């Protein structure tokens, strides 16, 4: 049995970077939504933070949908 270590390392690296990126993007969305709560408590508006949070969540959903598309195929 022959293991292609270069391919295995490549898959591991891409998976690690993608996972860290998605978790970071989701975290930015959570932070954006928390800015809305703190701004409303102070009587302000955090429209930009909420819009950015929704964009982050949409990007996460798009990445997950693309991953499912890659797995399921045509």
Automatic annotation (TrEMBL):
<keyword id="KW-1133">Transmembrane helix</keyword>
<feature type="transmembrane region" description="Helical">
    <location>
        <begin position="6"/>
        <end position="34"/>
    </location>
</feature>
<feature type="transmembrane region" description="Helical">
    <location>
        <begin position="46"/>
        <end position="72"/>
    </location>
</feature>
<keyword id="KW-0472">Membrane</keyword>
<keyword id="KW-0812">Transmembrane</keyword>
<protein>
    <submittedName>
        <fullName>Uncharacterized protein</fullName>
    </submittedName>
</protein>
């Amino acid at each position: 049995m022959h293991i292609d270590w270069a391919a295995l390392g490549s898959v591991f690296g891409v998976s690690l970077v993608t996972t860290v990126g998605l978790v970071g993007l989701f975290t930015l969305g959570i932070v954006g939504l928390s800015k809305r709560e703190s701004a409303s408590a102070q009587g302000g508006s955090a429209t930009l933070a909420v819009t950015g949070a929704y964009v982050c969540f949409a990007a996460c959903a798009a990445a997950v949908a693309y991953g499912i598309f890659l797995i399921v195929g045509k």
